[in-house]
Amino acid sequence: MKNTWTIAARDFRSYFTSPIAYIVIAGFMAIMGWMFFFNLSHFNMQNMQYQQYNMGKGMSITDGIIRPLYGNMNVIFLFMVPFITMRLFAEERKIHTLELLMTSPVKLSEIILGKFLSSLLLVTIMLALTTIYPVVLFITGNPDLGPIVASYAGTFLLAGCYLSIGILFSSMTENQIVAGALTFAAGLFFWLVSWATQSAGPVWSDILTYLSLISHFSNFSQGLLNTTDIFYYLSFIFVGLFLTHRVLDSYRWR
């Protein structure tokens, strides 16, 4: 594990020696800040209308703010993760340092896991910065803690799936733009694959729904930690890293 953490620390520092981390974090927080302000304003306006026309208590904070906010966060990560992962192996291949790294006394699995952890740490920092939104909600209202914690857990796992896709495609090419584009396309595919269930048969409909990344997030947004959803996300990450290992292993023996 020492080698893994050494590689993770090296790659994590490299994010901040270039503009990548600053641009990604600034863009992410700007978009999330706007969405939080919009959701909060829309929630207040709707509840005022409910009270004005005596239509009941109105929407809860969970339904009006929390679920839309973290649902939108997952969409933003779909766009942001390719910028985080596209350079991890593609840059190493382009400047021919990958050969040196793979001939060093470090296991290939440690290299892959180290790079994955470096990108996951950056995502963790991005998520940590968004905790200001639940703090504001607790100061001004009384939201349910369960959906917030579960949404963070689901978003963390979902982002890990995006990262595993990104590392896989970054290992396939030395062109960072190509790696980023393929990562976005693949992530979008696994996001939208459940849309085909309407025209698929009963068996294929269940398969496509299970393969969809977003369909497994619905329980998290309701405050439920389902072992089936957790197992799916962890399996998805494992498969992505395993395929990356196979790609790099074949590259080593060429």
Structure commentary:
Helix content is 78%, strand content 0%. With 254 residues, it is mainly α. The chain has one domain. Helix 8 packs parallel to helix 12. The model has no long low-confidence stretch (mean pLDDT 85).
Briefly say what this structure is:
The protein is mainly α and 254 residues long.
Q: What structural class do helix, strand and pairing data support?
A: mainly alpha
Q: How many beta-strand segments?
A: 0
Helix content: over 70%
Q: What is the terminal separation in angstroms?
A: 28 Å
One letter per element, helices H and strands E, the order comes to HHHHHHHHHHHH
Average the pLDDT over all residues and give the rounded result.
Answer: 85
Q: How big is the Rg? A: 20 Å
Count of DSSP H/I helices: 12
Number of domains: 1
Strand content: under 5%
Q: Which ranges are low-confidence, i.e. pLDDT below 50, for 5 or more consecutive residues?
A: none
Attribute tags:
single chain, 254 residues, mainly alpha, 12 helices, 0% strand
List the helices and strands and how they pair.
Elements: H1 2-16, H2 20-52, H3 61-85, H4 90-94, H5 98-102, H6 108-129, H7 132-140, H8 145-170, H9 176-192, H10 202-211, H11 218-221, H12 227-252
Helix pairs in contact: 1-6, 2-3, 3-8, 3-9, 6-8, 6-12, 8-9, 8-12
